[in-house]
Amino acid sequence: MSARLHSAGSTGAAREDGPAMERETYKVVDMHTAGEPVRIVTGGYPPLEGATLLEKRRFVHERLDHVRTRLMHEPRGHAEMYGAILTEPSHPGCAAAVLFMHASGYSTMCGHATIALGRWLVDTGRVGRTGDETRFLLECPCGPVAVAVDTRGARTGAVSFDSVPAFACALDREAEVPGLGRVRFDIGYGGAFYAVLPAARLGLDLRATPLARLVEAATAITEAVRAGPPVRHPSEPDLSFLYGTILTDDEAPGPDRPSRNLCVFGDGQVDRSPTGSGVTARIAIETARRRLVPGTPWRIEGVTGVPFEGMAVAATTAGRYPAVTVRVSGRAYYCGWSEFVVEEEDPLRDGFLLPG
């Protein structure tokens, strides 16, 4: 698989579109899921070192972070860009492995990228089709997830995945948040940890309050929670951090009551999609509160209004926590294919972001 997933970047070759000079190239496929971008690196990314996927995640953070900023930041990307790095799986039975990256770092799970990768891996033949539905395991930093791609022509792009064990880490936790006072929230894990609370609890409205104000409030909550008692994954220290905050509407969960959320992750990035790992975390929380019965589908939309559907499909455990496996479904679409060039003489070759 490595020869197909990683092709060496070109250097010093004469080209029709420019003079011959020392430069590196990266090939990518751009997709989106419910409006959230996914930049899949298909060529030029250096080989990854590490026996496990989490070791490779540490390696890219420590040794190859300039590649992330080249592809995520301006001038090739932007502050809200999201990407995927494919590599060899270390977990038995997995067809591929992926690291997720964005403008401010690396995440441990990404549902919208998993949906896009599911379609792309099957479309390109990296995973062979098997009838009307193709199933395979994709190794993510949080663990293997089971992916199912609908390969019937009438439903091109429809993908679902079954999560790692998802659980409510804390219910009704409180923190003092500058500018907001004492705030009550839940913490859920869906491959990444999120603080989750209704926007109305802050006197805000997901549909009427300006987006900048919602992002400001969610970012303040994330910072306050990160400054408090740390969240802890039951078995893996590398997964033990709060990824972001999800503001929700007040709609009670149910098959006939679609909900909306706004996920603000990383250092203030806004997920355009409903956030696959966030939908997973929300369903784990609502199941723990006994407001959502396993087997009940729930449609949740993000800021674009395009929904994912989630459903708890099995009970399980995660260390001392009761947990559920959550199935999340959505669709991904192609945006384009690109080859990016990095010239050694370019003072902005490793990318930049505007302050603010």
Quick overview:
The protein has 356 residues and is an alpha+beta fold.
Structure, explained:
The protein is α+β, with helices and mostly antiparallel strands. The chain folds into 2 domains: 2-163 and 335-343, Diaminopimelate Epimerase, Chain A, domain 1 (Roll), CATH 3.10.310.10; 167-329, Diaminopimelate Epimerase, Chain A, domain 1 (Roll), CATH 3.10.310.10. It has 6 helices and 17 strands. The protein has an 8-stranded mixed barrel with strand order 1-2-3-4-6-7-8-17, surrounded by 4 helices. It is globular and about 55 Å long. Mean pLDDT is 93; it is low at 1-14.
SSE topology:
Layout: H1 2-5, E1 23-33, E2 36-43, H2 53-63, H3 65-72, E3 82-87, E4 94-102, E5 105-107, H4 111-123, E6 133-140, E7 143-150, E8 158-162, E9 167-177, E10 181-189, E11 193-198, H5 211-227, E12 242-248, E13 259-265, E14 269-270, H6 276-288, E15 298-301, E16 307-318, E17 321-343
Parallel strand pairs: 2-3, 4-6, 11-12, 13-15
Antiparallel strand pairs: 1-2, 1-17, 3-4, 4-5, 6-7, 7-8, 8-17, 9-10, 10-11, 12-13, 13-14, 15-16, 16-17
